[in-house]
Amino acid sequence: MAGLELLSDQGYRVDGRRAGELRKIQARMGVFAQADGSAYIEQGNTKALAVVYGPHEIRGSRARALPDRALVNCQYSSATFSTGERKRRPHGDRKSCEMGLQLRQTFEAAILTQLHPRSQIDIYVQVLQADGGTYAACVNAATLAVLDAGIPMRDFVCACSAGFVDSTALADLSHVEEAAGGPQLALALLPASGQIALLEMDARLHEDHLEQVLEAAAQAARDVHTLLDHVVRQHVCEASVLLGD
Amino acid sequence: MLKSKTFLKKTRAGGVMKIVREHYLRDDIGCGAPGCAACDGAHEGPVLEPQPLDPASSLCPRPHYLLPDTNVLLHQIDVLEDPAIRNVIVLQTVLQEVRNRSAPVYKRIRDVTNNQEKHFYTFTNEHHRETYVEQEQGENANDRNDRAIRVAAKWYNEHLKKMSAENHLQVIFITNDKKNKEKAIEEGIPAFTCEEYVKSLTANPELIDRLACLSEEGNEIESGRIIFSEHLPLSKLQQGIKSGTYLQGTFRASRENYLEATVWVHGDTEEDKEIILQGLKNLNRAVHEDIVAVELLPRNQWVAPSSVVLHDEGQNEDDVEKEEERERILNTAANEKMLKPTGRVVGIIKRNWRPYCGMLSKSDIKESRRHLFTPADRRIPRIRIETRQASALEGRRIIVAIDGWPRNSRYPNGHFVKNLGDVGDKETETEVLLLEHDVPHQPFSQAVLSFLPKMPWSITEKDMKNREDLRHLCVCSVDPPGCTDIDDALHCRELENGNLEVGVHIADVSHFIRPGNALDQESARRGTTVYLCEKRIDMVPELLSSNLCSLRCNVDRLAFSCIWEMNHNAEILKVRFTKSAINSKASLTYAEAQMRIDSAAMNDDITTSLRGLNKLAKILKKRRIEKGALTLSSPEVRFHMDSETHDPIDLQTKELRETNSMVEEFMLLANISVAKKIHEEFSEHALLRKHPAPPPSNYEILVKAAKSKNLEIKTDTAKSLADSLDRADSPTFPYLNTLLRILATRCMMQAVYFCSGMDNDFHHYGLASPIYTHFTSPIRRYADIIVHRLLAVAIGADCTYPELTDKHKLADLCKNLNFRHKMAQYAQRASVAFHTQLFFKSKGIVSEEAYILFVRKNAIVVLIPKYGLEGTVFFEEKDKPKPRLIYDDEIPSLKIEDTVFHIFDKVKVKIMLDSSNLQHQKIRMSLVEPQIPGVSISADTPNMDIDEPERKKKKREK
């Protein structure tokens, strides 16, 4: 059995996309009324839900409060039904903890935390269906949720993954492409300034190729920004119509 | 960018997992036809021709494109590769199916697609909005794919109609499946079978021969008798292999006996096992190098490997009775100990068929279209082909591919691929041996040549960066006469502190061949330069090999230098490596260098340098031999060529001088020093060379042979072997030692390249060195280029690149290099054999003294020291009464009538060229002394009819 051909000679990927193309993205803001902010995003078959509470007073131990900025608390979980085989533990495993930590780093870099000293912002993200690029989907969903909550940020945080096959950088990897075992890079970008909020890479990639892959991921993240921006504007439009302005 | 993509889900349920995959459909995929307004701007890569007129087909006179289905692509790739077939649309569905079913065909079709002149276009129909087809309820995957292909064909026809009403461009669907064709015609798609279409190409009748004969009905003419048992299906085989009832291995036909083969069972846990197969039925249609499943026979049916030499000579096929009789010859009683596990082939796991070179044996019936083809490689069975141009192909070397081997056929069926040229023609024969040994020998492509430096070339400021200027040193090179690719040069001088500085300077090929470009890829593919008797197949283009990289005298050249500081006892005090620029003061031959060293009158710089080197080399050699390095021997010959006709006019065994071993010694030293350095720096991905110690059983023949001469050979370590070989001397028989060394060489294992991260045994047995690599011949070996790159990175003279530090890529590279080296060696031997034949053809019949190297059941293998020629003397001939032969395996000896032959016995043989089989013209030897009535022939009456082709004789009889 020959393995899957990730990139055909004609330049098409397994699912019919070209190297730099994203999967179809659909997003909605304000899906839950009780939370301060919420959003839902679909990137191809990867579906994620983000909910934001805060800024509010520190819950639990007061000692955790930071005198000069807000505490960002992130929790990641993925539904037991999100993968092909049912998962045993929805959250609390190592992978979820690590993902939570990464999200926290990402959003500490983006949210203007110094505006809310001694308070706390909670971001809860759940993956409903996983088909590659879960980190990116979570960040994008959380961005929309934070925006929905009206928490001041430096910029959107847009994330996208990229891989490297046959000396070509592929943007927005699907599960099939991730499972092939090549190098995989996750990038969270502040598109306006071009600053990187988080950069992570699995597997080995030669230094010479890094720039190419990074550029592919950045371009994809900028494309994501265009789409998210559109979603936000539309949401604001709808909200203002409802308010009767 | 993402506009108008319809979103679909494809669910594939199988096993336990449910996989959901996205499948995007696009409307920006072009049809590949130029000037198509509908899909303007979407074209990429090679495109179809706007007016495909050239294949004049009587079936479809209108201009058309072809659209083959999967089976046509799989089986008729030879036809599609023909330059006459152009403008073909390959669907993605078809390509994917081919990819899953046959990797070699997939590779070939990709090569064709990449060839701009062929105008093959790959249409991504699975992702096109209008040609995507969903699997229907109750439809299997094959039917869906067939439907998808038809839908695409239909779409194409409608699409092209829209584009140009006046052109009447058509797409013709080619399928060999009857039902599929009917359905297509029903749907209004012009469809033909491959055979119909090719036959309609009136301008290219030769294409018909290249058609693979697959039509099952066609073969019914032969006797309906079933010769072979059925092959089991793959699923059953896998089950059997898992449960241990069957064994999986590589089928290796015997070169000497067409009824015998061995199967190497590759198992990691148990040691490699060898299983013997005997008899046509047990071989069951397996062809050399196939991966097969075998079943072991019960112990009472085990046989011993026969020492009989048998060639398949039957002119007429299907006389199975005769075969059975022959098989009986094999089963002569052997003693219990000799019995080896014996088995039979139950199924084929993977065919490894390739196109074979050989000749047509024309059928006796004049009008017959079926002929047998005899491959040049004896291990390949004869192949039945169908051709209308038999008389044109007779006496030519041709290439034939196997299509299949039905159960009721004695021989496999195949088809004609290519005509190479006349037999015996030097060009053709060279081509054949290059093809047979898979040596890439096409001229370098334009893409490769474009990476060569521009002439006139000189060393620039930029080149001197990271480079030491050593042009002032008195460097010289010593090589065989006529050598144009000089890759090494040496120097030696005394330092102020009394020590000696010795430098080995190697051509800096890696400076010109940059990693990853076409030039580099081509050299990596070739792996090595192949030296044939009158020709050299270069690994790198000539500009580099004979000019810019060749360290010729009195020109500035770039080099990679390895410089030692040694004391007068040849102990290394310091070693350093540097890229350098040198200017060789003299290019000497071995003889010239020797003369300089010996003549007392010469005292110039070069000569003193050579003397210093020679002195050190002697010490180094002595030390190396003390450590247990082996000095082996193989008879090597050199031809003196006629300068006009390039025919060999004389043979000469290679002479060894002190200077040969002087150069060799320093090359070894450099290789070892470099190996240490790169392994130190890159413990995981250094490219090294090892020579495994042979298993003790390999030495059996050597020990037995020595014993028969009352000598003892110890083989427990390399050292004891070397010592006992040194001691094995007989005052009455001075050549004995050389013979023993020749035999010892045959016992050795192959030395191989490997990647240090993938192996932990680095030892080089023959050189008795714990670590070794190849550094000194980058012009002719690719391994050296990699080693140069590694070393350059290690000393900071060059930068690294991704593939260099990937041990899996390196391991793959090693695999290719080992294969190429082996093949180059075989090709070299074949070339020597061919020239030996030419030589004896011109020389006529000669009688020479010879020594027996091996004793077989019905023959002896002899070596003629004068020519370094090895040959077999048969004692059984077809039409003559058989002499009484008694073979003793223990000693080993062969008793013929009353004369006994032992290994190393001296005999006298007559050598002549046997052209009775045009394909394998061979040197034939017959016994002259000792005289045995009825067996030996007298020295002066030549056996006249031997030189005449047998077939002619037959005709006369009729």
TrEMBL record, chain A:
Q: Which InterPro entries match?
A: ExoRNase_PH_dom1, ExoRNase_PH_dom2, ExoRNase_PH_dom2_sf, PNPase/RNase_PH_dom_sf, Ribosomal_Su5_D2-typ_SF, RNase_PH
Which positions fall inside the Exoribonuclease phosphorolytic domain?
Answer: 21-152, 155-219
Where can this protein be found?
Cytoplasm; Nucleus, Nucleolus; Nucleus, Nucleoplasm
Kindly give the Gene3D superfamilies that the UniProt entry links to this protein: GHMP Kinase, N-terminal domain
Q: Which SUPFAM superfamilies match?
A: Ribonuclease PH domain 2-like, Ribosomal protein S5 domain 2-like
Record text on subunit structure and interactions: Component of the RNA exosome core complex (Exo-9), composed of EXOSC1, EXOSC2, EXOSC3, EXOSC4, EXOSC5, EXOSC6, EXOSC7, EXOSC8 and EXOSC9; within the complex interacts with EXOSC2, EXOSC7 and EXOSC9. The catalytically inactive RNA exosome core complex (Exo-9) associates with the catalytic subunit EXOSC10/RRP6. Exo-9 may associate with DIS3 to form the nucleolar exosome complex, or DIS3L to form the cytoplasmic exosome complex.
**Protein name (Swiss-Prot/TrEMBL):** Exosome complex component RRP41
TrEMBL record, chain B:
Q: Name one GO molecular function term.
A: RNA binding
| Domain RNB intervals | 467-797
GO-annotated biological processes: CUT catabolic process; nuclear mRNA surveillance of mRNA 3'-end processing; rRNA catabolic process; rRNA processing
Cofactor(s) needed: Mg(2+); Mn(2+)
Compartment(s): Cytoplasm; Nucleus, Nucleolus; Nucleus, Nucleoplasm
- Keyword set, alphabetical order: Acetylation, Cytoplasm, Endonuclease, Exonuclease, Exosome, Hydrolase, Magnesium, Manganese, Nuclease, Nucleus, Phosphoprotein, RNA-binding, rRNA processing
**Which stretches of sequence are listed as region Disordered?**
935-958
All copies of the PIN domain together span 64-182
Q: Do you know which PANTHER family this protein is assigned to?
A: EXOSOME COMPLEX EXONUCLEASE RRP44 (PTHR23355:SF35), RIBONUCLEASE (PTHR23355)
Q: How does it assemble?
A: Component of the RNA exosome complex; within the complex interacts with EXOSC4, EXOSC7 and EXOSC9 of the exosome core complex (Exo-9). The catalytically inactive RNA exosome core complex (Exo-9) associates with the catalytic subunit EXOSC10/RRP6. Exo-9 may associate with DIS3 to form the nucleolar exosome complex, or DIS3L to form the cytoplasmic exosome complex. Exo-9 is formed by a hexameric base ring consisting of the heterodimers EXOSC4-EXOSC9, EXOSC5-EXOSC8 and EXOSC6-EXOSC7, and a cap ring consisting of EXOSC1, EXOSC2 and EXOSC3; DIS3 associates with the base ring of Exo-9.
- This one is known as Exosome complex exonuclease RRP44
Q: Which organism is it from?
A: Ailuropoda melanoleuca (Giant panda)
